[in-house]
Structures are given as structure tokens and as C-alpha cells.
Amino acid sequence: MEPYSRLTAVAVPLDDANIDTGRIFPSRFLRKPRSAGYHNFLFRDARFDETGNERPDFIMNRAPYRAARIVVAGANFACGSSREPAVYALVDAGFRCVIAPSLGDIFFSNCFRNGLLPVVLPAHDVIELRRQLHAQPGAHMTVDLDAQHVHGPDGGVYPFEIDATRKLRLAQGLDDAALARAYLAEIERFEREHLAAWPWAAVRAKAT
Amino acid sequence: MPTHVNRPLTLFEKIWNRHVVTASADGESLLYVDRNLVHEGSFLAFDLLRHAGSRVRKPSGTLAFVDHFAPTRRVEGDRAAAIFDADGRHVIMELEKNAQAHSLEFFGLADELQGIMHVVGPELGLVLPGLVITGNDSHTCTNGAFSAFAFGIGQSEIKQVLETQTVWRSKPKTMRVCIAGGLPPRVFSKDAALALIGRLGAGAGTGYVIEYAGSCVAAMSMEARMSLCNMSIEAGARSGMVGPDATTFDYLSRCPRAPKAGDWNDALEAWKGLATEVGAQFDREVSLDGNKLVPMVTWGTSLDQSAGIEGTVPRPADVEDADKRAVLERAISYMGLSPGTALRGIPIDRAFIGSCTNARVEDLRAAAEILKSSRVRVPTLISPGSMSVKRQAESEGLDRIFVSAGAEWGDASCSMCVGSNGDLVASGQRCASSSPRNFEGRQGIGARTHVMSPAMVAAAAVAGALVDVRAF
Ligand code: SF4
């Protein structure tokens, strides 16, 4: 995974609260392989009408926001289904940061596995950022992972919190599964002891 | 808070402490996973595994279920022939191929035990108290009804579980939801869940694991507890759980894959020691009065947009905060409703009883009680949570009640909960549904979903409109 550092890019405001992962990536595309180009399915039903034409009223279709790599969203963004394709679609469309007052828990974890930085800021800060982005369509923002700062369009600085191990892994582009594999000997030992103490915890075979 | 050796512990803490392979001081711990449950969507995880040149470390640790794309109908008795489309057929085949390639237990369309993973795992006794359970589905939290720490994860994490049988986790905060009293007639755990989410907000549980407690929960069946835990994710909480008690043990003692003989006695001993201790601290405590609960209906597109059936669609004009007002306006407009409209009497176009929230035999019995000697006025689809549930319902004659009421009695599937198998609600149509989610487009593009209990869905189907099941 690509190491994460400092990102300066156009940001797009999405005002709705509770945008669920099904709106970000509609269910009917969950059967598609990643090679189908998941950016094509991002916000599909908001971006396109039934005949496949772009809806001009959807903010991501407006010229100043087409280059956006940062989303500034409403509360409880990406709640609902665990579908990681919601993250894939954002990443495949070029996004690398999502800022919101709160984010769906599973989406939040999935972000880290794909180099997408989820930033939680107080609701009033997020509202202020979205206000500025609406006032100056196409405005840039900067997200500085190292300093844990977001710089708004007007230069205002908003500090954010992030779990230390997650920050490190993101900054170094480390793969979680590889980090877990480094503990395989411990896992083997743990499993032996666990199942010796709780033999019933093993999956009981089908009666034949 | 300092950790004292003798500090009373919660159920969650006991399970957590038991499963930490390695802990980091300032972040995530590596947790051992006892069971990993996957459905068709896991092809992405298996692709990642293949791409990494890895293999499944512990084949018995993962079980595979065909549910999202399973057809509810048949073609000349054949289920596979009724699969909706080529893509659906492909992902079902992928799951079977991946299960075969890695020697995983597979519950496919031809299996008499096939069904929704959150229904089949528990009913077979594969889900046990004290275990850590992951799944590639957000409603994996359903399994917490059995005093397990169960949560949904994404495909990258599934790949890690396949490789290592572990997952990285930061320790969640704990919330206890105490429901006291007893549920009034025709009020169900689904109503308690909707009332809770309505009160807390759809994101309030984010970062928490919920333990449901109190006399009302203690009196609930395992089925009712599963519906309650299932809805935890709709409150934002990845996991919900109920403490182990005689109801849990009694249920498990009848499950074919639960521990037997000497193992059973050891297990029982361990399970009894898992309960939250008196004086254990939670980060947040919430209480609900079960006696005061009423049948709930969602009117909007988020699970906290609900009211009792005697309620009305809210008036955004009364809301001062512009952001909150905009949220209400959007939901009301999507749902094709007007501010101030009484919920009772809103006409519906179709009804669905099914899903991992409410398609167990107890749910079907509650629906049958309403449908007995009635006729439905709108197309009504009933899809049991598993083929075992289907056989049980048929042995009780419930299928005959459904069919003579004019409802369609299908096979086990996620079905119209999400429409992946082609059971879709048409754009602009209004559906009374026992499923867990009312999101925009959830049951089909432009579909309008009202979430409620199965008995409420049955009553709405008979009336052709939202009604109070207590008046039936
Ligand atoms: S029934 Fe619905 S909520 Fe449950 S697993 Fe299937 S699609 Fe998800």
C-alpha cells in the first residue's frame, strides 16, 4: 500500500447525514469483480439517471468538484452494510480522505486497509468546512497526517485524533495482514492453549 | 480508569481478555477468531488471498453460506435454475469453488440446511457463548444473542482471518441497554430495537459494544434476542450481546452442532462464568421501559426516523437547526410523504416478511396469527430465514395459512431485504418490510421501505395500509 503523507486537493462537500454504504456503492454491483472499475459504481444512482445520463444536480458531477480527492460529509457517513466496495469505489475514483463528524464503524476500519484516511472532526467544524467549500467551489484543502491537522479552504487549522498504530501503518503503507502473519508462531501457541482450555470451542464436525 | 485485578468484569471484557493474542499499548490488539462466517460477497477476499499467494490457515474456522443471491422461487422444482442472472450465478459458483478449494464447510442451494448465515449458524449450534465471531456482513452482530463477541468486517480483514484466524481490533467502549418490564401484547423485540435507535440516533452506538440486559431481555426467547442484537449495527454499534442464561443453554442443548456429552458439561461450566459481574462498569448506561413500548414503524430512510404506529410524519418546519431540517426534508420527500401525515392509514404497495432480523419460526408464527382467515390486499412475499425454518413452519401448517391468505411462500434467502436475488421493490412503490434497513434504494432503486415487526407487516398486508397490529 502506498504510504500516506500530506495531501492537498479539491474537496467536495456532501451535506446529507446518514449516507449509507449502499448509496455509495449500490448492492446490485456487489457481484462485479474489482476489475470492472469500481469508480464507475460510486454513488451510481445519485450520479446517473435510469438511462445512464449524468444528473447535473449531483454535486460530484459539477465541474469544480470533478478533481476532488477529499470528501467532507455529514454525520454517520458510510453507515450500514459492511461492503468494502464502498471504500474501493472511493479509492478507485481517486479519493484519499473522508472527513465527517462520525463514520460507520466498519467503513472506518475498511478505510485503513486501503489507504483512505478517515478523519473525524467535531460537527461544527465539519459544517464550517462544508460552508466554505460551497462558497468556493473547487477550493483546495490540505490533510496532514503527520501533524494530524486539516487545513480548511480559508487556511483554518483543525486538529484531529487518530489511533497511533493505525497512523503508523497508514504513514508507512504497512499491510495489516502481513503484520498479523509476523505473529504466526504466537497465534499457533495461543490456539493450542485456547483449545486445550476450551475444547468445545472448536467447530464440531457434522454428524455422518 | 486503572485496571484492578479484582475489578468486576463485563461479559464483553471476559471474552476480549480471553482472545488477545498480542496487545499493543496504544492501539489495536490481535484477537483470535473462533468462527468466521462468509457469504457470496467474500469472492473479493478470496481474490485477495489468491493474489497474495496465501492459503486458508484453518479450514474448519470458516463456514460459507449462499444467502444474498439465493432465489426464493424455483423452476420446475430446481433452485439453481431460478437464479436471477448470470452475475448472481457466477458469485454463487465462486463461493462454492472457493469453499471447495480451501476445504470449507459450504451451505449451498442444494443443501437442506441452506439459509441466511445469521440464521443458519445459530440454529445449528455453531455459535456459542464466549466465542469471537467474524463475518463479511454487518449483521454478524446477530450472533451476540448467544453471548458471543460477533462483528462484521470488510473483505481485506476477511482475507486476514482466512490467512491467520486473527483480526486487529481496538477495544470498543461498552454500553449497557437495560430494558425493564415486559413487552405488551403484539409488541416485539424489533419494536424495542427501533424505539432504542429512535431515542439514541442511528450513529450513537458507533465505537461501542452493546450489552442488552434487564428483565425484559431475560424473558425474551433466543429468536427475539437475535432480532434485538441484529439491529445493533443500525444503532451504529458493530456488536450487541446478551448474557448467558438458562434460555441460552436450553436452546443450545437442542442444537445438532452444539457441544455434546462431556464437552457439553465443560462448556456449560465455562459459559456460566461469562456473565457480567455485579458492579461491572460500562462507559454508557441507557434504560428503556419495556411496558411502555408500542408497535413501531419507520417513516424515513434512516433507522432513527421512526415513530409509534399512532404517530405522524414530522414537520421539518418545526425544526430550528437547518442541517437537521434538511435531513428530514430529504427523507420525507424520498418517501413520498407529507409532513404531519398520520402513519396509520398510509397505503402500501407490497409487503415482505423475511431477512436475518425477522425470518425465524417465531416471527413466522406471529405473522401467521394475523394472516389466519384473512386475505392480503397487496403482493406479499414471505421468505423463511433458512430451509430448516421452512420445514419447521410447514410442519406447523404455517405455509398453508400464508398461501390461503394469498401470500407467496418462498425459499430461504436474503430476498427482498436487499434485492440481490432479483426480489425487488419497484421505483416509487411502498413496502412494509420486516427487514432491518430502510435506506434509500435498499430494496430497489427508488423503493420506499417501512421497517416494522413481522406481525405489523402481516397486518399492513391485510389492510393494504399501515395499521396498528394491536387492533387486529
Ligand atoms: S437478510 Fe438483509 S440484512 Fe440480513 S444478511 Fe441478508 S441482506 Fe443483510
What does this entry look like structurally?
Chain A has 208 residues and is an alpha/beta fold. Chain A folds into two domains: 6-174, Aconitase, domain 4 (Alpha-Beta Barrel); 175-208, no CATH class. Chain A is 32% helix and 15% strand. Chain A contains eight helices and seven strands. A seven-stranded mixed β-sheet of chain A has the order 4-3-2-1-5-6-7. In chain A, a hairpin with a 5-residue loop joins strand 6 (149-151) and strand 7 (157-159). In chain A, 42% of the residues are buried. With 472 residues, chain B is an alpha/beta fold. Chain B is built from 15 helices and 19 strands. Chain B has helices spanning 11-19, 43-51, 86-101, 117-124, 155-164, 189-200, 215-218, 222-230, 246-253, 261-272, 322-334, 361-371, 387-395, 398-404, 454-463; strands spanning 20-23, 29-32, 35-38, 62-65, 105-107, 132-135, 149-152, 166-169, 173-180, 208-213, 239-242, 284-289, 296-298, 306-308, 350-353, 380-382, 408-409, 430-433, 448-451. The longest helix of chain B has 16 residues, at 86-101. The N and C termini of chain B lie far apart (52 Å). The model of chain B has no long low-confidence stretch (mean pLDDT 97). The interface between A and B is large, with 63 and 87 residues. Residues 67-68, 116, 118, 137, 139, 355-356, 414, 417-418, 435-436 of chain B line the site of iron/sulfur cluster.
